[in-house]
Design a protein that fits this description.
By secondary structure, this protein is an alpha/beta fold. The protein folds into three domains: 373 residues, TIM Barrel; 53 residues, Alpha-Beta Complex (Oligo-1,6-glucosidase, domain 2), CATH 3.90.400; 82 residues, Immunoglobulin-like (Sandwich), CATH 2.60.40.1180. Helix content is 27%, strand content 18%. The chain contains 16 helices and 22 strands. The strands form six sheets. An eight-stranded parallel sheet has the order 11-10-9-5-2-1-15-14, covered by helices on one side. It has a five-stranded antiparallel sheet with strand order 16-17-18-22-20. Bound molecules: 6-O-alpha-D-glucopyranosyl-D-fructose and calcium ion. The site of calcium ion (CA) has 6 residues, from loops. The site of calcium ion has 6 residues, from loops.
Amino acid sequence: MNKQWWHDAVVYQIYPRSFCDANGDGIGDLAGIIGKLDYLQKLGIDLIWLSPVYKSPMDDNGYDIADYQDIAAEFGTLAEIERLIAEAAKRDIRILMDLVVNHTSDEHPWFLAAKSSPNSPYRDYYIWRKPQADGSPPDDQRSFFGGSAWEFDEASGEYFFHLFSKRQPDLNWENPAVQQEVHQMMNWWLDKGIGGFRMDVIDLIGKQVDDKILTNGPRLHPLLQEMHRASFGPRNVLTVGETWSATPQIARMYSDPAREELSMVFQFEHVTQTWDPEHGKWKPRPFDLVEFKRIIAKWQTELADSGWNSLFWNNHDLPRAVSKYGDPGRFRVESAKMLATALHCLKGTPYIYQGEEIGMTNVRFDSIDDYQDIESLNFYRERTDAGVPHVDMMEGIYANGRDNARTPMQWDDSFNAGFSDGTPWLKLNPNYRQVNAEAALADPDSIFFHYQRLISLRKESEVMVYGDYQQLLEEHPQVFAYQRRLGEQRLLVLNNFSAQPVELDLPTELTGIEGQGLIGNYSLRHRLDERVSLAPYESFVMAFSLTSSPP
Ligand code: ISL
Ligand code: CA
C-alpha cells in the first residue's frame, strides 16, 4: 500500500455553531474556534473538519449554502477563515471544508435566477419537472426531512426537486456548467491552503430522478473522477465522502487510489444497525455487539488491500457515542475511554466529534420547543399530526435526534459552560458542571488525555496504522477483541462493551504472551494469563512481537 500523509492522521470535527462563541451573540464563530486552537493542538489532532460556515439562511444550520465563497456573518468573515487556516497551520493542523454540493440554499443566486425565469441560463442548474395531469407532483418521492421531494413553483407552474428541506433545492449534476462551477469553487478554496474536503451526501450527485435512482447513480464515479482531475487531484489533500449507501465493494471504488476518486468515505452500516429496519432512526433498536463486530470485521477485511476506512462513532447528525454505545451514567469515563480505544486501534482514519474527547452525552429536554433541528421538528410535526403520541416521538428524539450532538461545547463549569456570554442558540446539557474541558485538562487520568495518548500512539506505531485486522472471539456477546498484525508485530486490543465484569478464556496462541502495555482505562497489562478478567467497560492494548515472545 502506498503511504499517504493522512494514513496516520486524526480528524476533529467542529460544528461551528456549537463550539465557542467569541462575541456573545449565542452562536459559535470562527473567532471562537481560533481561540481554542491551542486546546486542539494539545489533543494532538491533524485536521479540523469544519461543518459549513458559508453564507446561509440557516434553514439547515448552514447545510443550505447561499454563497460558497463567502462566510455567514454570524460566523465571521473571509479574512477570519484565512486567519483560521493560517493559525491552524502554525500548529500543524489543516482545515477540511465541508463541501455541500448535492444542493444549495434557495437563496443562492443560481436558484434565484433559475426561479426568475424558465429561460434563465441557470434554470438547468436545478431539477425541474412538469406536474402530472391532475397537478400533483411528478412522482411520490419523499424528502429525507419529510413531505414530498417536489416543491411547486407558482410562477412557472413546474416543480423543483429537493431531497432535503424545500429550502435546499438539488443541483442538476447532469449539467456540465454545474460541474465546472463547483470545480472552480473548490480550487478557490484549495488555493487558500485548505487540507481538503468532507463531501456532504456525495453519493447522491449521480441521481437520475426520472428513473428513480438516487444513490449510486451510473454517473456518480465518473463525476468524482472528473472532480478529482479538475480540482484536488494534484493537491495531495484529504477527501472524505459521506456515503450512506456504500457497501465495502462500493467504498473500494471511491477509495482505491488507482481509481483517482476520494481518499476515503464514511460508511454508516454500524449506525443504521441500531435503527428499526422499517421505521428508521426514530424507532431505535438496541445495540447488538455481535452484529456490530461482524460489520466492523467485514469493512476492515474488505478494505484491507485497496481502499481506506474512516472510523467514527458520532458526528453532528448522530447521538453521542457514550450514550449510544457506552454508559453515560456510572461508567461514563470508563466507557468513553473504552470506545475511544476500540475505534482508534482499527485500521483507518479516526474522526473525533467535538465534545467526544470529554465524554459529552445525549440530552433530554422535556419540551419539543427546546429543540432546533429541522429534521427532528419536521418529523415531530408530521408524526404527531398522524397520531403518534408525544412521548413516543420524544423517545426517538432522545435516542437519535441530531440536537444531541449540537448542544454547546462544555468548556468549564461557569455560566453557559464558558460557551457564550449571551443566550446560547440551543440549550446546554445541564451536566456541564461535571463534564467539561477545564475539568478534563486538570485530571491527568481524564478521557481527554486518553484520546491524546491514542493519537500519539498512532504516530509511533506502524502496526496501528498499517497492520491487518484479525477478529477474535467473534461470538462473545460482551467483548470486542481483535489483533492487528504487521510482520512480526502484534497489537492485541480487548474491550469489554458491558457493565458486567468478564472472565475470558483466550485462544491458546495468546496465553502466556508477554509484551508492552500501551494503553488501558484501568491499568496497563504486560502479560496475558490463560484467563483474563475484564472490569466493567475495561479495555486495554498490548503490543508484542512474535520473536520476543514465543507462545
Ligand atoms: O442523519 C440523517 C439520516 O436520517 C440525516 O439527518 C442527514 O440528513 C443525513 O445524514 C445527510 O446528512 C448531511 O446532509 C444533510 C445535512 O442536514 C446533514 O447535517 C449532513 O451531514 C443535508 O445537507
Ligand atoms: Ca458568536
